Queue: 2 jobs
Job 1
Amino acid sequence: MDLEKYFNKEAIAEMSFKEFKETYTGSKVLSTLKIDIKDAFKQLGGKISKTSKSED
Amino acid sequence: MATLCTCDFGLGNSGTPNCFPIANVTNNLIIVPTYDSSGARNYIDTTATLDSTYFTARINDTDTSTRWYPLPAMKNIEDVRAEAITESFNDGTSVKIQQGARTFTGVMIKESPVLVGKIANYACTKISAFVVDIDGNIIGNGEEADKLYPLEIDNESWDAIYIKSTDTAVSKIQLNYTYDRNEDDGNLRMILASEMSQDVRDLKGLIDVNVVADTITTTGFNLTATFDYGSQVNPLAFEGSVLADWTLYNETTTSSVTITSVTEGAAGVYAFVIPTQTSADVMTLSLSKNRFEMADYKITIP
């Protein structure tokens, strides 16, 4: 997967979506790959908590 | 070198086969340190599989004493041996003392002055050259079976000159040197292009990468990576690097740091995200990517 050329999947899986969003919002890589930040997080093994709507 | 005469043998036989390969004019040179760090002469093992893996390993060799340094294609090649040095006598006869020196001259078209600075320094060590001809054959010294040695250069004669553009001529780098006096034309041998699965005319040398980190925090930093080439205002950017090219080591805790992400924003500007580090820790960033070389870079966590 192209995302794994730039992101360490294991490390991203340890992050919350909030952290991911704060860190990578506006990332040129994501816009170049034309991938939504939430989809990127999921594809990298991140888990979005259903109980925490604030993360979305 | 002087011809060594032996008294107990006849003349060398002068017959030749009907068909044998002949080297063509030089396309480019591959400069190689004459000796590796152990003092042994560098050579091509002609029994090895000479494929792209072999040549990629030579060019990207982390040991600079065995690395190959291919130069760009050249034109106006002159590779001639001077007349032998003789002593003349009053009766009009002369005696050959030693063969003349073989000198090489060629130009690389529209290359940067930066390259002159880099290759001029080759004179500081003992260097040799594999000659690649326009057919893609490699020419060297085949004095030992199963080995092709690069042709030894008199490094004191090595001279790279930058020639500026004129109204009627493009800029160029002119290279002049003399081969070592011990190189005997009778030892010139080739590895044919057909004996290699890589076109050695396409080999390119490593490019130096310079980096500067800024916006350093406990969880990351930005890195601007450029080449020596480009303008004084805007050096060319080192673009397209990815996570796998980089390694980070915490010198303070003597442990590897797994980089979370490396994403390129503006050309050659990379955002590194790392696990939280302790203030004052010293990190070493390394690059490992074919065709590029970067000196390890120290980053101190604020």
Note: Residues 2-46 of chain A form one domain.
Job 2
Amino acid sequence: MNPLLQATRLSRRFGGVRALADISFGIRVGEIYGLIGPNGAGKTTLFNVLTGLYAADEGEFVFSGKSLTGLTPNQVAAAGIARTFQNIRLFANLSALENVMIGRHVRTRAGVLGAILRDARTLAEERDIEQRAFELLDYVGIRARANEAAGGLPYGDQRRLEIARALATEPRLLALDEPAAGMNPSERFALADLIGEIRRSGVTVLLIEHDVRLVMNICDRVLVLDYGERIAEGTPGEVQGNPRVIEAYLGAPRVA
Amino acid sequence: MNLAGWKRHPAALRAGLVLLAVALVLLPFALTQIGTSWVRIANLAMLYVLLALGLNIVVGFAGLLDLGYVAFYAVGAYAYALLASPHFGLHLPFWIILPIGAALAAMFGILLGAPTLRLRGDYLAIVTLGFGEIVRIALNNLSRPFNLTNGPKGIAGIDPFQLGRVDFSASDSLAGFTISGPMKYYWMLLGVMLLIIVATLRMQNSRIGRAWEAIREDEIAARAMGIDTRNIKLLAFAMGASFGGVAGGMFAAIQGFVSPESFVLVESVMVVAMVVLGGMGNVAGVILGAVLLSFVPEILRWTVEPLQQALFGRSLIEPEVIRMLIFGFALVVIMLYRPAGLLPSAVRKRELAER
């Protein structure tokens, strides 16, 4: 029961809006942790705070024993949290392979001098990068599209490519922001399989998802937000029966 | 550079490159037959190739619009002028000064890059434009209280390159051939240009080159992938500027004279035009753009006047005016019909096809 990520009283305001209010939670090593809530509940804000895109106004979060509060996104990625984006942000004009190769940046070292001189170490590293990128494309099932422009791939493949690119940074925690958005049911099943596969390979997963069924099926535990506040946490079964969750999603029962 | 088709015929590619190399090495002899000034024009064209390749790193690879690039050219030129002229009585050899000039220009690149890290597009263009002007105006005014740059009068009597007993400003004869000074500079520039082309191509296909591309495509995604965008952008500014510094040093030696007048805004605009016209991000395209925009105006200069004489018996419009007119028109036509440049990079082609 050791937490991989422990967030304590995270808060974030945008002007007068409290997007996050005193959010505390812990993600355990090896679990799939769901983050749900109605539109505007603060899910993506929380995500952006955890990945360094926004700074938290208050509170802190510790990732595998190290405080990451206030770090920049690249430092967070280097520390081992990788993410995908709700509105896919691939390097659209680059090939699928190049996208994943860029994901290797943070785990490789060659600089300008190595690039120009092409010494043995740089060449070996380049070969590694390319090989690993091919493996990851294979892993998410789009190796055949390695040389196509990322922006031209079918929607589902773009989502998969984003996951491959994130995995290329060798994360300990993979944060997926609505990976099933816009997918048809069969694509969703395949995605659920892939997420399960990633977890089995030893990567902890944080999942924001609108599709409640998907979340309930694959998550070990779920955190429910509403108006920036934590309203419930627990296994999918526990959360499903929670009156506050039902209220948040369906509205308050009319007083008779 | 599109080598995909050639990769299947490595022998043909190699033979082609050898032929091209031989032709380029022998070119000055042919140019001398037309007129000695054409070797100088070729040298100037190669200087522009160096500048365009340097700017291409910033604009083409990293996607940061820089309208003050000539500042780094100026830094390199003045570094050479100050360290190899009677102005301070220093006469260091060129192979010491050129690296110093490159390093100094790289420092200026970082100086420009650091405060502009958060800017993109038009806003970045305005700041860089201002930076270019600041450098030029500073050079114009740094004659008092301590005379660093000699102000608008510039610095004269700059040492030519000297390699052993070979003086690049004088003619020699070798096996019956006359080897003029500009010809020596031509071969020197050819060598430097080759080194810079290889360095650029290698950088493009490297971890750093991919990081530049990532920043150009989507900076937020690049940061989320662990790319330290600050350092990688500064690196682009520094590398691009260092090419400009080298070109500036060679320019100072070839001219023997530098003054702030050589580093005006139009020069920056010209280099941007070369990069954009040739094909941003594509090394072969950028070289083509630089060569075309250096040679075509010269060719026009030599043809427009005689043509008017033949047609009207006198010169109606100044050659300079008509040259710019045709030049501007050609740019508009090219941008209309080949918006990604004459030899677009595959990436740019995709980008523009989307619109």
Note: The beta strands of chain A are 3-14, 17-28, 32-36, 58-63, 66-67, 81-83, 173-177, 204-208, 221-226, 229-234.
